[in-house]
Amino acid sequence: MSALNRRWRVAGMPSEHLETSHFALETVDRPEASDGQVLCRVLWISMDAAQRAWFQAATYRAAIQVGDTMPGFTLAQVVESHCDDFAVGDIVAGDLAWQDYVVADPNNLRRIVPNRPLSNYLSVLGITGLTAYFGLLDVGEAKSGETVVVSAAAGATGSLVGQIAKLHGCRVVGICSSPEKQKWLTSELGFDAAVSHRDEAFRQKLKEACPEGIDVYFDNVGGTTLDTALSVMAHRGRVVCCGVVSQYDTSTPVRGARGVPGVLILKSITMRGFLVMTDYADRWDEGLRALEGWLEDGSLRVAEDVLEGLEKAPEGLIGVLNGVNVGKRMIHVADPL
Amino acid sequence: MSALNRRWRVAGMPSEHLETSHFALETVDRPEASDGQVLCRVLWISMDAAQRAWFQAATYRAAIQVGDTMPGFTLAQVVESHCDDFAVGDIVAGDLAWQDYVVADPNNLRRIVPNRPLSNYLSVLGITGLTAYFGLLDVGEAKSGETVVVSAAAGATGSLVGQIAKLHGCRVVGICSSPEKQKWLTSELGFDAAVSHRDEAFRQKLKEACPEGIDVYFDNVGGTTLDTALSVMAHRGRVVCCGVVSQYDTSTPVRGARGVPGVLILKSITMRGFLVMTDYADRWDEGLRALEGWLEDGSLRVAEDVLEGLEKAPEGLIGVLNGVNVGKRMIHVADPL
Q: Which CATH number fits domain A4-123+302-332: 3.40.50.720, 1.10.10.10, 3.90.180.10, 3.30.9.10?
């Protein structure tokens, strides 16, 4: 075990787009665990567009400050334990930030007993998969025969939402940002149709792909894509408000979703926001059982986009904000002992 | 029975505020009912802010055109019947427009058997009361102990929403437009607090009136009042989208509710629009029974704002758009025979 710890500090606050210059890699002494604590070695780091929102203001967590080690969801291994809850070798999940080693309070860790590739526990069997599962089925109440549209469809959450909707007998249309992703969604993931929000005829193509309107719109992006989807909703449609990626990496967010609340009244539409970590904390096991079942019988395909090495974290996150990833982007830092 | 019919025609389309010059009163021959039809005498006309929206675009009804007799909800009496469903003397409700006499298809009429003042069937025992009842309890899922805020609180729907919420054990805060209305809401209707959206310290006063945040915001107005309420919502709060009065009488509506969808995600908020006429058509009897019960035991106070004579209809509606009414505004046209 190295006596040193590499960590990514926040070196500046983005005023417009996030850039690599907003981060600085530094090497310091490995921290020491005290009584009741554990020392963890970070193995995998999750790259989530929502991390950009953490710079803007307090969200479900305090706002990021200059000097912070960049926070982020991780998988890690316990390498030193001074508590009864965890033993050396245990695999844990938690917000352990962009670094090699971290001293953690056991209350902030969740034990993972992996029987699949470890990375899966940060994608389909982590917050991403649970967000897709509960967002689509519980918040959105998607039912067989309905039309489900998901934005950022080739992303981590979207690619799972569409597949789970297909497993529930829905017609599934993905919104993404390129012809390559459109092709991937329909030919590889089994989506019924895919449209690009960069297409000049975006609204027309979305309407054509949803001849009876949208019953459930799973929204990861907000902005003008949400405006367009709202205009194609069916009566009594549901909008699952999961993310606002289009508005994170900018200093000039749009004022609000166009036509809200008028369009909600005219079509009896429900918009509902949620955070799976808090709203579904007591139902995670249910979601994980369902997701594991689909993985085991081969009906759910996991798309992971892995970058190698802690040094790749800043560019990895910036890539997510620019939509270059296909599936769940993660940084592989180290292998378990 | 007069051989003549007075009717208010739409003489022009408002580009900004609705004015009396957009209407023209004309006198024509009384229409003749054919086989299967009934001739009705209009008794009461409902004045609803939503009527202004009918000028803007197709809503739950076709958009108003120049030359139309101004549509509107009415109570009427059958004065000639050529069908089996209705007899002379029957009291009916329906959209019979701003006029003395109208020939109607029986399928568009609903029979009223009044055992209370007739006007009540256009206010608390009509669409207004049902909107308050189902909007608060079913769409908003208001529960005892929760904080309910309603805008246009001194208006037709708002004054009922607040009273029904009190009957359900909620803390009730009204948003209105003047100190006189604030006083009326708290001293006459039993609201716990009332704030004016015209107060410079509106947001601060709303926060003080809702120390634990807003659990249910019953929104009749949209616009900046909705923006403010959204910023004071409690976790898992519900916004009942009932009306957008602030945006009807203008050619420059705001783009959309500020911060939507981001604020919905951060606080797990639900926004839901509804139209009681369609969404609750099969549950009207349930709502009417509850409302009649509260009227009979004196626990619900009816606030009606009556103008005398068909000729008052245009100024009556313009007054509603300017918020001059207290309670449900109606035009009294004639008494039943």
A: 3.90.180.10
